[in-house]
Sequence to fold (376 residues):
Amino acid sequence: MQVIPVNLQERSYEIEISPGALDRAGVALASLGDVSRVVLVSDDVVDNLYGVRVAESIVDRGLDLDVIVVEHGEESKSIEVAYSLWEQLLELGADRKSVIAALGGGVVGDLAGFVAATYARGLRYFQIPTTLLAQVDSSVGGKTAIDLPKCKNIVGAFHQPSGVLADTTTLQDLSAKDYVSGLGEVVKYGVSLDSELFDMLERNVDAITSRDAQTLEKIVAKCCSIKSEIVAADERETSGRRALLNYGHTFGHSLEAALGYGAIPHGHGVLVGSILAARLAQRLGASGDARFSAIDDAWLDRQLALYRNLGLPTSLHDLGRDYGDAPETTPQRLVELMASDKKTEFGKLNFILPVALGECVYAKDVAADDALAVLR
Fold:
């Protein structure tokens, strides 16, 4: 077992990472104290895999339990589904001593966290992430949200969980698509924030592709450690430090919006978005911006080599191969969607761009023509 603290004064909590952690759900929730009931929120796929196991763990600790199951997929991160959960909580008699436990991937975690943040002006909630993407990224840090049709994660709240319980054995059950999606967030940390992690990924390609349990536990712990330090330093993304976690996301979110949320996995958008961000940095460096002078062909080739060795998508062509041609992803359309992204300020395009391996900056006021050139 590895335990990583997230130090946020009175909102501090711990991330527990271990094989078999699902069986400790009841212990972890009971340890919060003064719990009137637990409302376990999951999706239909995850509930079939782990719902009974987690429910039994909770009931065995003498806690009252209710279960709400939503449909799997990004479409559940909607105002309609959130409204349904609010109504069900009211019918169940949930009060301020109730705890919402999110069992599943990023969609369930974001949705359940948002509902917890808004029902009765805020309930405690607990994250039990079952996907690689959720374990290394979305379950940590307190960002909760739902989507609008034209913009991802635009309606939400900062609401820290009371704890995170990550069972790495669930990663063996992921589809190849969902596993690759999680690797999108993993390599993001290495390219943009931690060169040691990038080196580790390069050295362990075979272990990663074969889902070696010990290797995955180390990777999850390393990513959580990186994120916990950034969240502790910039909880509400006011200093710009936390925004650095969004490498690849401006391009990636525009791809997701153009195709329709759920058409491609989030991590696939981040992967292709991070390559586009690197190409944008390379273009700006070649145009005289000294910050990006180190981002040359050799730098980009090293990033591409790791992605290809891990079997990850690197281009719009790869996405088209895997998910079909997408006429909606014209350069002009993608730039229009970027202008509505929540990280855009005063109508200007902002990107997280690399300046060295494991280091990035928040580049504000990037010209739309430069983004268009990269996309073309």
